C-alpha cells in the first residue's frame, strides 16, 4: 500500500474499517461516499475522485470491482471496493485517491433592486442558453418551467446512467413523472434563475433547463457538471451551471478535486456559479499562528448526545511541521502525533471517554501544504461523542512559525463549534465556491417582511439593503479573493415545489414561497450570466467576472472596492 496516495479522510476510514469492519462505514455514511456491505453480496465500497494519468486505462483493475465513470481525464470519479485500495495505490498511473463527501444545499422586489428589468429590455431573456441546475431536483409540473426542461439526470433513481456516470436515470418528456423534488430547494433555485411566473419571475425566463437531481456527493456533483456541459455542447448552446451547495472538508484554497474539475470544465460558453455558503454565524473555523518552539490550544464544543462522529480538518504550510494531540472533556489526552511519512500515517487512541483517530501525512500533492485529519467517536461505535469542551493541542518543535487553519465537521453539520480566542469569521468559503473559475456569490437582503398564504405577517431580523450576517466570508486560505459579487439572498420569493411540504409561514400562494440563503443569491447571478451568454455565447469565466466586478458596488464604498464579506458588492445591471 502506498499510503501517501490516499487523502487523509480516506486513510482514517480505511484503517478504521480494517480494525472495526462494518460499523466504521455505517458511522461515516452521512458524511462520506461510503457504501455499506451489510446485507449485500458485494464488498464494502467507496466513491472517490481518482487523480491519474490523462489516458490511464483501468481495464486491468475491473476484475477487482473498480468502476470508473470517465474513460479519460486526469481527475475522474469512480466507485471501488475498499479491498482494492492496495492494488490501486500501487499503480504508477494513479497519483491520488480522494474520497467523495456529501455537500449541503445552501421574487418581487429583488429584480428591481438589481435593475434587471432595465438590462433585459425587450431582447435579453436567456433564449438559446442552457440553465444547468444541480440540486434536489425540480417540480416539472410547475407552470414557471413549462416546455423548457429538456433533460433531467436523476442520480438517485436506479438506471443505466449516462456517459458521465453509470448510475441514475436520464429522463425526458413523459418520463419526467418519475422524478420528484420533495425537498423543494432545487425548484426554488431554478425559479430564481429562470422561472416565468408573472409576479415572481426569474432572471432568464426563456432559457431552457438541464437538471441534475443529485445525492449531493461531491463526486456525483462533478459528474453532473460534466453532463450539463456535454448536453449543451451537443445542442451547440452556451450553458451556465448553478451550484447552490457546499461543504468544508477541503483545503479552502480551490485545490480540492471538485474545484479542479470546475476549473477544467469551465471555459468559453461554459460558466459555473457557486454559493458562498451560509456559515457566517457559525464558529466552524479557527485560526492561529503557532510560533517556533510554542504550543497552541483550540477549544471546540461537542453538544451532548447529538453527534456520533466529529472531525477536525486542519491545514498549515508545507514548509512547517506540527505535532497534534487531542484532550477530552474528562482531561484525558492522546500523545502528540508528528507528521508520518513512512507507512500508514493514521494512529488510533482509546481514551476513557471516547476514541480518537489522527492522520498526519506528508504534504498534500495538490497544494504542497500539510493536512491533518482528526476523527472523534463515542466510547463504542455508534454511540454519541462525549459532550463538552474538547481541546486540539498543536505543538511546534521547529524554529519556524506556521499559520494554522482548522474547520470542524460533524455528521449533522454545524453542531461542533470552536470557542475562545481562536475563532475566526473569515475563510469560511469551502468547495466548490473556492474554485478559481467559479463565480462565487454572497447574499444581501432585499426583503424582511412578507405575508404568508394564510394572511399572517412575518418578519426577520436582517438589515435591509445590507449583507446578510449568515453569508460566509472569504478570503480563501491562500489569500485569494472570494466571494466575487453579492446578490439578493433574503427573503426571496420564487417557485414552490408542490411535492414539498414547507411550513405555512414560508408559503406565499399555491405556486410560490420565500426562502433565504446564498443558495438564493447564486441563481440570481446564474440567471444574469444566462442573459450575458445570450448576448455573447463565447464569454468565459474571466470575461463574465470582468463585466460583473466594475458594475458591482459595496454600499458606501467606491466602485472597485473589495471586502471578503461582500466581494465587489451588489450587482447593478443598468449599464452592464
Tell me briefly what this model is:
The protein is of the alpha+beta class and 576 residues long.
How would you describe the overall organization of this protein?
The chain is α+β, with helices and mostly antiparallel strands. It folds into three domains: about 5-100, Alpha-Beta Plaits, CATH 3.30.70; about 105-280 and about 430-570, Rossmann fold; about 285-420, Jelly Rolls (Sandwich), CATH 2.60.120.1290. Helices cover about 15% and strands about 30% of the residues. The N and C termini lie far apart (about 55 Å). Mean pLDDT is about 95; it is low at about 35-40.
Q: Could you name the key traits of this structure?
A:
Alpha-Beta Plaits; 6-stranded antiparallel sheet; 10 helices; alpha+beta; 32 strands; Jelly Rolls; 8-stranded mixed sheet; globular; Rossmann fold; 576 residues; 17% helix
What is the name of the CATH architecture of the largest domain? 3-Layer(aba) Sandwich
Superfamily at the CATH H level of the largest domain? Answer: Peptidase S8/S53 domain
Would you tell me which CATH topology of the largest domain applies?
A: Rossmann fold
Compute the number of strand runs: 32
- Give the percentage of residues in beta strands: 25-35%
**Integer average pLDDT:** 93
- What is the CATH domain class of the largest domain? Alpha Beta
| Radius of gyration from the alpha-carbon trace, in angstroms | 23 Å
- Helical residue percent band: 10-25%
Order of strands, widest sheet: 9-8-10-7-11-13-24-27
C-alpha geometry: globular
Global structural class: alpha+beta
Q: How large is the count of helical segments?
A: 10
**Uncertain ranges:** 37-41
**Total domain units:** 3
Q: Describe the main β-sheet briefly.
A: 8 strands, mixed
End-to-end C-alpha gap = 55 Å
Amino acid at each position: 500500500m502506498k499510503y501517501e496516495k490516499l487523502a487523509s479522510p480516506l486513510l482514517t476510514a480505511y484503517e478504521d474499517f480494517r480494525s472495526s469492519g462494518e460499523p466504521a462505514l455505517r458511522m461515516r455514511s452521512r458524511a462520506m461516499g461510503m457504501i455499506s456491505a451489510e446485507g449485500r453480496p458485494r464488498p464494502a465500497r467507496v466513491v472517490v475522485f481518482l487523480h491519474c494519468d490523462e489516458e490511464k486505462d483501468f481495464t486491468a483493475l475491473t476484475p477487482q470491482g473498480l468502476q470508473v465513470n470517465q474513460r479519460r481525464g486526469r481527475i475522474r470519479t469512480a466507485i471501488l471496493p475498499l479491498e482494492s485500495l492496495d492494488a490501486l495505490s500501487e499503480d504508477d498511473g494513479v497519483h491520488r485517491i480522494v474520497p467523495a463527501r456529501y455537500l449541503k444545499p445552501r421574487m418581487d422586489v429583488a429584480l428591481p433592486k438589481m435593475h434587471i428589468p432595465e438590462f433585459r429590455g425587450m431582447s435579453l431573456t436567456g433564449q438559446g442558453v442552457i440553465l444547468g441546475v444541480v440540486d434536489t431536483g425540480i417540480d416539472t409540473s410547475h407552470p414557471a418551467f413549462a416546455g423548457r426542461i429538456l433533460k433531467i439526470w436523476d442520480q438517485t433513481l436506479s438506471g443505466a446512467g449516462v456517459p458521465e456516470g453509470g448510475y441514475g436515470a436520464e429522463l425526458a418528456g413523459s418520463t419526467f413523472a418519475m422524478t420528484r423534488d420533495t425537498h423543494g430547494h432545487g425548484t426554488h433555485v431554478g425559479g430564481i434563475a429562470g422561472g416565468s411566473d408573472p409576479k415572481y419571475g426569474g432572471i432568464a425566463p426563456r432559457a431552457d433547463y438541464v437538471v441534475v437531481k443529485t445525492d449531493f456527493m461531491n463526486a456525483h456533483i462533478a459528474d453532473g457538471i460534466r453532463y450539463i456541459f456535454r448536453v449543451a455542447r451537443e445542442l451547440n448552446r452556451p450553458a451556465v451551471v448553478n451550484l447552490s451547495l457546499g461543504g468544508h472538508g477541503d483545503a479552502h484554497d480551490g485545490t480540492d478535486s471538485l474545484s479542479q474539475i470546475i476549473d477544467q470544465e469551465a471555459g468559453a460558453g461554459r460558466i459555473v456559479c457557486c454559493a458562498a455558503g451560509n456559515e457566517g454565524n457559525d464558529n466552524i473555523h479557527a485560526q492561529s499562528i503557532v510560533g517556533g518552539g510554542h504550543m497552541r490550544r483550540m477549544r471546540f464544543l461537542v453538544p451532548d448526545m447529538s453527534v456520533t462522529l466529529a472531525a477536525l480538518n486542519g491545514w498549515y504550510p508545507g514548509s512547517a511541521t506540527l505535532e497534534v494531540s487531542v484532550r477530552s472533556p474528562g482531561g484525558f489526552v492522546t500523545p502528540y502525533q508528528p507528521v508520518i511519512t513512512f507507512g500508514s500515517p493514521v494512529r488510533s487512541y482509546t481514551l476513557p471517554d471516547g476514541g480518537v483517530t489522527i492522520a498526519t501525512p506528508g504534504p498534500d500533492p495538490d497544494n504542497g501544504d500539510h493536512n491533518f485529519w482528526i476523527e472523534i467517536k463515542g466510547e463504542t461505535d455508534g454511540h454519541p461523542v462525549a459532550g463538552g469542551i474538547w481541546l486540539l493541542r498543536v505543538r511546534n518543535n521547529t524554529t519556524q512559525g506556521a499559520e494554522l487553519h482548522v474547520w470542524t465537521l460533524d455528521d449533522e453539520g454545524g453542531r461542533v463549534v470552536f470557542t475562545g480566542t481562536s475563532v475566526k469569521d473569515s475563510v469560511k468559503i469551502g468547495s466548490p465556491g473556492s474554485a478559481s473559475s467559479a463565480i462565487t456569490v454572497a447574499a444581501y437582503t432585499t426583503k424582511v417582511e412578507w405575508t404568508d398564504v394564510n394572511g399572517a405577517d412575518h418578519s426577520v431580523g436582517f438589515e435591509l439593503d445590507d449583507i446578510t450576517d449568515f453569508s460566509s466570508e472569504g478570503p480563501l486560505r491562500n489569500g485569494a479573493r472570494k466571494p466575487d459579487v453579492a446578490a439578493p439572498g433574503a427573503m426571496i420569493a420564487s417557485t414552490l415545489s408542490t411535492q414539498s411540504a414547507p411550513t405555512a409561514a414560508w408559503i406565499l400562494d399555491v405556486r410560490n414561497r420565500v426562502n433565504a440563503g446564498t443558495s438564493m443569491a447564486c441563481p440570481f447571478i446564474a440567471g444574469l450570466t444566462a442573459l450575458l451568454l445570450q448576448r455573447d455565447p463565447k464569454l468565459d469565466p474571466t470575461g463574465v467576472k470582468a463585466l460583473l466586478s466594475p458594475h458591482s458596488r459595496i454600499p458606501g464604498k467606491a466602485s472597485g472596492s473589495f471586502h471578503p464579506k461582500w466581494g465587489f458588492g451588489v450587482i447593478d445591471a443598468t449599464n452592464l
